[in-house]
Amino acid sequence: MALAPEPSERTSPEARGAHEVIASGAATLGIELGSTRIKACLVGPDGVPLATGDHAWENRLEDGFWTYSLDDVWSGLRACYASLVDDAERRHGVRPTTYRALGISAMMHGYLAFDAQGELLVPFRTWRNTTTERAATELTGLLGHNVPLRWSVAHLYQAILDDEPHVRRVRSLTTLAGYVHRRLTGRNVLGIGDASGMFPVDPAVKTYDRRMLDQFDRLVAERRPGLQVRALEELLPEVLLAGHEAGTLTSDGAALLDPSGALRPGVPLCPPEGDAGTGMVATHAVARRTGNVSVGTSIFAMVVLEKPLEGVHPELDLVTTPAGDLVAMVHCNNGASELGAWASLFGRFAELTAPDGAAPDADTVFAALLREALEGDADAGGLTAYNYLSGEPVTGLAEGRPLLVRGPDSAFTLANLVRAQVYAAFGALSLGMRVLEGEGVQIDTMVAHGGLFRTRGVAQRLLAAALGAPVAVGSSAGEGGAWGIAVLASYLGDEAGHDLAGYLDEHVFAGAEAHVVEPDADDLAGYATFLDRYVAGLAVERAATDAL
């Protein structure tokens, strides 16, 4: 095999430095399996991205469940990894073969159940499924702790209640990140943030809550005597904190990720984490009184708490940071996908009307539409929109139908249409955040990230109106969770010297700048009017799910 070419004399010192970092195996790799993209990010010792890779994929609705096949998981990971290696060679003249550390992240929650031989028993049931209402309601009442529809334990208990035949054969449960990590390392472990979306954890002892584990086992024994399900603790992955080593890349794992054989085994891995945890890291929001908003296929806000909440609220998940600190999470199933669908429609129109086929690319179309939204009326001109491609637990809807509703006197302009769609992406989230306000939760900083914020100032300004609080966007806003898990991998072994917040302060975000937008008075008033219509119109959304 020919060696990668050395940088030329004309290559900048920065590029030559990156070449050496990558060639020596000193760079750190993060990979995140998101809802629509698998993304990889390679970073240097200072956390600065050196190369990226990605692969687009989509979930499918099969037999009433949203799912991804495991074949798609691995073909997507291989394509994403190959894309990253190609990008490193294109930018820096070197193809990486090893790394200082590696981290895997993925969408949280859902149901991946395996038998004793490690075979998947039923297709992966993702976070998007809302078929577990009976189980979630019963478990919330039993445990005195909100158990959302998408949590792994809700899926397991619903399968028990439904007498699904596979339940007797379940020998392990995990998340998507945990599954990929186990195949790469052979270790059945999970970062505490991801684990807290499988079953409630006790922040005091940094693992699953013992009292609640016992309550669940007794409940199953009473409700399904003779089922002979193993104790829940035996089915769940071991819980690890950020900074702890979670295994090393095996020969089989390296071949799974890179069939070319260039990737060498032996790379240490950090604990696998969920996209909520990597979002907190990517936005520098792991300390108490900080928070972040992540916008993608779903949208969620995370606020690190100073103390436990007084009540149990169905709108709020209680999860943890990757370091195990308690977090209140407002998770909405529907984020920017419907806005993306409208952008695709207008992009196709631009393509049809472009002279000589010189149509703008998707990013250009999206940016133009977002900027147009700022020209709209503060209340979106009387338009009301719902982005519900799937059910929305925050507003009590088991199914979704995207809707645009307007009255005869509404100002139906492009600017108002786009503003209504952006507002709709934040609607359910702002309703959930009201619950935190009622608990007296204080937030010093709210940071936003995700591709929606690549167009500077637009979605950020409208989100500030929806939250009624300043919103910051940092330079890493578009990198997202792949960069966040790469940073967590970089933290591997440093927990003795710094806590996670201190590590981020000193090694990752020192001197970093963020663009902060304060709520605009007119936007605040306009959004409040829109939200009143949004709440009143939920009856229309419910009727649509019944009729269509």
TrEMBL record:
Gene Ontology molecular function: ribulokinase activity
Q: Which family does it belong to?
A: Belongs to the FGGY kinase family.
> Which UniProt keyword terms apply here?
Carbohydrate metabolism, Kinase, Transferase, Xylose metabolism
What is this enzyme's EC? 2.7.1.16
Q: Which gene encodes it?
A: araB
Carbohydrate kinase FGGY C-terminal domain residues are 292-491
Task: Give the protein name, as stated in the record.
Answer: Ribulokinase
Gene3D superfamilies found in the cross-reference section:
3.30.420.40
Does the keyword RNA-binding belong to this entry? Answer: no
The biological process GO terms on file are: D-xylose metabolic process
**Cited InterPro entries:** ATPase_NBD, FGGY_C, FGGY_Carb_Kinase, FGGY_N
Q: Which is an annotated Pfam family here?
A: FGGY_N
Domain Carbohydrate kinase FGGY N-terminal residue range list: 28-256
